[in-house]
């Protein structure tokens, strides 16, 4: 499944100390209570938590300004990245125009790499992609980080990672998510699904925070902001999954926790037949509730970004949340009705996003 076409802030999945158990089950390290509870969930949480801590620590390091110094080539590379972003992520692209030129171009470069990576398994040539091809792509990623780009798009990212405290691990983890798409069509529980969401979308938040920047007046820790970015990525991907149930079924995939489906009494046959039963509606209400809780956690972190970076992130967050509203308006028929937010609603959200962006850092921390 394609990852969300939105680049955060720091968006995936804030207090990093495990909170006490609640009636719904154990809370995540992000403070989000899960609707189902499994003892195994700690594995994915701990694994992702380690990455968050490592990436948050990167912002304290100053990397030497290396890479390509051919400014004509770099300008062309960044311009082409901007063209791709403008074509495939129109609303977010408009938001990036409010950022400084340097940050805007860096976000474009990250967006394009993520899109190209996703296209390997979801694009027109996906049927020809093998695990070996992804191994080759990962080696190419290593060359990018070592200042040896293969093409113009690579050159833009190579220059970006030489100018911002970006670690390679989130990029490698996204490729790991693509490997899962080649090999896995079912997820036994939310623990497995959470890790998948981290790989394909939470990583985008971790990549973006160093470029977006944390406001100098923010009282939040770096780990807290990175965790909030992670929450946005998780929320976006869960929204993708809920929206695209019918589309994924036609590809033989079910990105829903198998144990929760079983508990709800929903069989795979019912899903493949697109049966919108009462039990399906109840099941979807719970899935939507979970996604919204991650959005709530993400909101706290957006306010901690640099002022010029907040608006595009707020815009993407508010627009993605509206997809969940549309699914409800469609009476939970996500088999044959695609949840689509119309242009009027999108444009109406932009002033609200801008208003929240200029409110300054939050009082949560």
From TrEMBL:
GO CC field:
plastid
CDD domains noted in UniProt:
Trans_IPPS_HH
What chemistry does it catalyse, as a reaction equation? Answer: 2 (2E,6E,10E)-geranylgeranyl diphosphate = 15-cis-phytoene + 2 diphosphate
Pathway info: Carotenoid biosynthesis; phytoene biosynthesis; all-trans-phytoene from geranylgeranyl diphosphate: step 1/1
Keywords assigned by UniProt, alphabetized: Carotenoid biosynthesis, Isoprene biosynthesis, Membrane, Transferase, Transmembrane, Transmembrane helix
Q: Could you provide one GO biological process annotation from this protein's UniProt record?
A: carotenoid biosynthetic process
Task: Give GO MF terms, alphabetically.
Answer: 15-cis-phytoene synthase activity; squalene synthase [NAD(P)H] activity
Instruction: Give TM regions.
Output: 193-215
Q: Name the Enzyme Commission number(s) assigned to this protein.
A: 2.5.1.32
Which EC class heads this enzyme's classification? transferase
Q: Which domain of life is it from?
A: Eukaryota
Checking SUPFAM superfamilies in the record gives: Terpenoid synthases
Q: Family membership, please give it.
A: Belongs to the phytoene/squalene synthase family.
Q: What is this protein called?
A: 15-cis-phytoene synthase
Q: Which organism is it from?
A: Gossypium tomentosum (Hawaiian cotton)
């Amino acid at each position: 499944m394609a990852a969300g076409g939105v680049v955060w802030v720091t968006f995936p999945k804030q207090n990093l100390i495990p909170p006490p158990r609640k009636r719904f089950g154990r809370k995540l390290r992000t403070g989000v209570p899960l609707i189902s509870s499994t003892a195994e969930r700690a594995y994915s949480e701990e694994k992702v938590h380690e990455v968050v801590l490592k990436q948050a620590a990167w912002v304290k390091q100053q990397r030497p300004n290396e890479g390509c110094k051919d400014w004509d080539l770099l300008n062309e590379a960044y311009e082409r990245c901007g063209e791709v972003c403008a074509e495939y992520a129109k609303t977010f692209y408009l938001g990036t125009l409010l950022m400084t030129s340097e940050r805007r171009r860096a976000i474009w470069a990250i967006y394009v790499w993520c899109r190209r990576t996703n296209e390997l398994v979801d694009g027109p040539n996906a049927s020809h992609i093998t695990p070996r091809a992804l191994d080759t792509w990962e080696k190419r990623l290593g060359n990018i980080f070592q200042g040896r780009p293969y093409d113009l798009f690579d050159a833009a990212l190579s220059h970006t990672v030489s100018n911002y405290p970006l670690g390679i691990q989130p990029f490698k983890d996204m490729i790991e998510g693509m490997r899962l798409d080649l090999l896995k069509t079912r997820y036994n529980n939310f623990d497995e699904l959470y890790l998948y969401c981290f790989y394909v979308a939470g990583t985008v938040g971790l990549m973006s925070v160093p470029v977006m920047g944390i406001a100098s007046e923010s009282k939040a820790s770096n780990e807290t902001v990175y965790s909030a970015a992670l929450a946005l990525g998780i929320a976006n991907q869960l929204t993708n999954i809920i929206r695209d149930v019918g589309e994924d079924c036609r590809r033989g995939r079910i990105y829903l926790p198998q144990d929760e489906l079983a508990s709800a009494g929903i069989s795979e046959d019912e899903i493949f037949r697109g049966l919108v039963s009462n039990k399906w509606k109840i099941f979807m209400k719970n899935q939507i509730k979970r996604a919204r809780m991650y959005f709530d956690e993400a909101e706290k972190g957006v306010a901690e970004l640099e002022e010029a970076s907040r608006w595009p992130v707020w815009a993407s967050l508010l627009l993605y949340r509206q997809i969940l509203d549309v699914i409800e308006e469609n009476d939970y028929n996500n088999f044959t009705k695609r949840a689509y937010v119309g242009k009027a609603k999108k444009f109406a959200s932009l002033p609200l996003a801008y208003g929240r962006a200029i409110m300054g850092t939050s009082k949560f921390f």
